Amino acid sequence: MTYTVKEIFYTLQGEGANTGRAAVFCRFAGCNLWSGVERDRTNAVCQFCDTDFVWNSTMDAGKFNSPVDLARAVADVWPQQVGGKPLVVCTGGEPLLQLDSDLISAFHAKGFEVAVETNGTLVPPEGIDWLCVSPKVDAELVITNGDELKLVFPQEGVSPQSYENLAFSNFYLQPMDGPRREEYTQLAIEYCKANPRWRLSIQVHKIIGIR
């Protein structure tokens, strides 16, 4: 299988349960809920994505012909001679369009824990160490258990309460980014205070100015 990757970079996880943890981000190109092209946004299932995940043929890198090649590229970005368990965050776009058990095994062989951030519409392969699902109101959710459910909030037509019967270890509300972010943050704060099962997830990386 050929893997198409938008970018690979080393940073700190900026949101959710692993906020502040060092990680290599492997951002896969492509998504099943939006093309990534701005003119298509208004007709997309997910209309609020804030990430550039579009790959094009003019890029010098981004195509990997084997899981070993991609795992090696990720390992090369992790700083040498540092402590702690290496973490790779597979994100997108939608990483489960490409992530498979062979690639997970290749990451494990390089010593990495494998975290995935997915919209929850595709069945995940075996072997993922940390599964974070971010559901979208108009997309069918097929993943109903995992480590973390992170709901972008608010989304018209859905209440966080409708997800509380799912088998996730952690439930997060993340204020929707954009011109009304301040207002949405206050709404999320009030919801979490009134419903303590939910925790607030802030996109810390945007606040402190890292990727």
TrEMBL record:
S-adenosyl-L-methionine binds at F48, C49, D50, G93, S134, P135, K136, Q174, P175, M176, D177. Its cofactor is S-adenosyl-L-methionine; [4Fe-4S] cluster; Mg(2+). Mg(2+) binds at T51. The keyword Iron-sulfur applies. It comes from the Bacteria. Its EC number is 4.3.99.3. It is an enzyme of class 4 (lyase). One of its GO terms (molecular function) is magnesium ion binding. Residues 18-211 form the Radical SAM core domain. PROSITE patterns: RADICAL_SAM. Binds 1 S-adenosyl-L-methionine per subunit. Keywords: 4Fe-4S, Iron, Iron-sulfur, Lyase, Magnesium, Metal-binding, Queuosine biosynthesis, S-adenosyl-L-methionine. InterPro entries: 7-CO-7-deazaguanine_synth-like, Aldolase_TIM, QueE_Cx14CxxC, rSAM, rSAM_sf. Belongs to the radical SAM superfamily. 7-carboxy-7-deazaguanine synthase family. This is 7-carboxy-7-deazaguanine synthase. The lineage of its organism: Bacteria, Pseudomonadati, Pseudomonadota, Betaproteobacteria, Ferrovales. The gene is queE.
